[in-house]
Amino acid sequence: MTNNDKPKLSVKDFNLFYGKFQALRDVTIGIPENQITSIIGPSGCGKSTFLRSFNRMNDLIPSVHTSGKIELDNENIFETDVVELRQRVGMVFQRPNPFPKSIFENIAFGPRAHGVRDKLILSEIVEKSLRQSALWDEVKDQIHKSGLALSGGQQQRLCIARALAVEPEVILMDEPASALDPIATLKIEDLIQLLKVKYTIVIVTHNMQQAARASDFTLFFNMADDRAGYLVESGNTVDIFTNPKEHQTEQYISGRFG
Amino acid sequence: MINKLKINKLKEKLISRILFFCGVFSILITIGIIISLFSEAISFFLRPEVSIIKFFTGTNWRPLSSKVSSDNFGVLPLILGTMLIGIISAIISVPLGLGSAIFLSEYASEKTRDIIKPLIEILAGIPSVVYGYFALSFINPIIQTVFEDWFGLDVNFFNALSASMVLAIMIIPTVTSISEDAIRAVPGSLREGALSLGATKFEVITKVVLPAALSGIIAAFILAISRAVGETMAVTIAAGATPRMTFNPLNSVQTMTSFIVQVSFGDAPTGSVNGQSIFAVGATLFMITLLMNIASDFILNRYREEYE
User: Fold this and answer.
1) How many CB atoms lie within 10 A of CB A230?
2) Is the pLDDT score of B63 beyond 90?
3) CATH topology for the B70-302 domain
4) For residues A223-229, average pLDDT
5) Is the CB of residue A110 less than 8 Å away from at least one CB of chain B?
6) Which end of chain B has the least Cβ crowding within 10 Å, N or C?
7) CB–CB of B306 and A109 under 8 A?
8) What are B's interface residues with A at a Cβ cutoff of 8 A?
């Protein structure tokens, strides 16, 4: 841990199985509040699965079962209402996935689902979310046009705005820039820096430079011989990248495998 | 060596010729049907005792009456009877078919789906005569009990409602499979996106999945009506043979198809007014279903572009 504060999310002896196959083994870690935590590791090491555990997205797969605990502010997420959990823990996906609706309707979707009916309040939320995701100036005149008419990078920022609109505390990002060009990627990274003031951010990335540039705290996962993912080491991003404790971390960040 | 090459080439040519013929065959048949249908229909309209305007606007359909007059050849009662049955059966089958499509694609486990889907498809394989007698012997008594005994309404023994209900059962498989395709075509990433915002599964289905699949569902609706409109045997048996202008489904009506059956089974000589009238009705029906199929194709194609 980088500071002595209580972690926002704390994971204790967490195991995850797809049927008989163990995908994650004995993960114990705290995710610090209002910081950017990046999860890195080779393909298949379970980093996306781990990320999707925080908002229980893995519930969708019937064969998945877990053991251990994940706590959000001391509350075990597996014992809370999943709808409420997902309102507190938002998610941005690898490929932009705006709904085939207008920009306005895309962002209003979440608040509507949580009972906001007033048109005026909804427009305020839409504007605020678009400003926060640095998209407002680009789209303010076409807010009732389809979200699919935007460019890939704009679509991804729309998806971030959509996640912000339900006022989450944590935002999970699963390789949010991997489908984007370098300029759109930089815009997303800048945006993430702005967001950490208000939100706790966990980001899975394949891009080593991105993790080094854009995160405060880094978790390195690797695959064991039986293909189960496990946490190799964690620490301040600077330390992980300049002075890793484990040999395999060093090998991975210097590009020798993965 | 050279001989073998030549033979191979010849073989390839022959195979492609045969396959080409197979492809063209059905087109030729279609053209033949259209020609025979429309040539007879046109000679019907050219008869002095028939008026094409009165045919499409008249509200009397008495082709078998002894007095042959253009006043007795108004096709509207048949169109109305056909549409009444088509629309009621769509109103019954669309919610049921759509509901089962939603269940199969969103709720059922792979195993349940593998059992239920073939069972629904069996409905499409039952001969329509069987449906007709099922309407008379099973559905009709229920309709009579409910509407006559409980509500005191007049119910004809042959009525549009029982025909509509069996038709609805017949077209449920069509509605289910087309709307299920449309629902399954909605990318999983949209469902995940909505779920990740804290929407419940039901909200995801009603607010994201169904709107995204809407054009496919509308296409299913239109195709269902057009199948119902073209269905013959079950309606001939169950709906009766009384052409009339009515919106009351408890009345006996006559559809375009059952009129054609009625005349074909009688002894209308070829070339007579009656004999030719069925071609005029057939051509009208053909145009109606053709337009519906074109409409559903058009809608289906439009929705393919909607995401990605």
Assistant:
1) 17
2) no
3) MetI-like fold (1.10.3720)
4) 92
5) yes
6) N
7) no
8) 109, 187, 189-190, 192-200, 203, 207-208, 211-212, 306-308
- How many other β-carbons are positioned within 10 Å of the β-carbon of residue B233? 17
Q: How far apart are CA A215 and CA A92, in angstroms?
A: 16
| A103-113 and A119-132 helices, crossing angle to 10° | 110
CATH code (residue A166):
3.40.50.300
B159 neighbors B249 (Cβ within 8 angstroms) = yes
| End-to-end Cα, chain A, rounded Å | 26
A111 lies in a domain? yes
**Alpha-carbon span A38 to A216, nearest angstrom:** 8
Coil vs helix vs strand at B205 = helix
pLDDT at A258: 59
Would residue A155 count as lying in a domain?
yes
- Would you state the structure tokens that stand for residue A127, as one six-digit string? 């504007």
Q: How far is B197 from chain A (nearest CA, A)?
A: 6
| A49-104 per-position pLDDT tens digit | 999 999 999 998 989 999 999 999 999 999 999 999 999 999 999 999 999 999 99
Q: Which residues from chain B sit within 8 angstroms of residue A110, using beta carbons? A: 197-199
The whole-angstrom separation of Cα A17 and Cα A67 is 9
- Put simply, whether A57 touches B (Cβ < 8 Å) is yes
